[in-house]
Amino acid sequence: MPIKRLDTVVVNTGSQNDQHSVSVPPVYLSTTFKVDLNNEDAQNYDYSRSGNPTRSVLQHQIGKLYRVPQENVLAVSSGMTALDVILRGLVLLNGTDNHTPTIIAGDDLYGGTQRLLNFFKQQSHAVSVHVDTSDFEKFKTVFQSLDKVDCVLLESPTNPLCRVVDIPRILRFVKCISPDTTVVVDNTMMSGLNCNPLQLNPGCDVVYESATKYLNGHHDLMGGVIISKTPEIASKLYFVINSTGAGLSPMDSWLLVRGLKTLGVRLYQQQRNAMILAHWLENSCGFKPTRTNKATKTRFVGLRSNPDFKLHKSFNNGPGAVLSFETGSFEHSKRLVSSKKLSIWAVTVSFGCVNSLLSMPCKMSHASIDPELRKERDFPEDLVRLCCGIENIVDLKKDLLAAMVDADIIEVRENGKYLFNKLNKNLAVNTTIDDLHKPLSIYEEFYNQDLIRKDSELNIKSSKL
Ligand SMILES: *Cc1c(COP(=O)(O)O)cnc(C)c1O
Question: GO CC annotation: what is one (predicted)?
Answer without folding.
Answer: cytoplasm
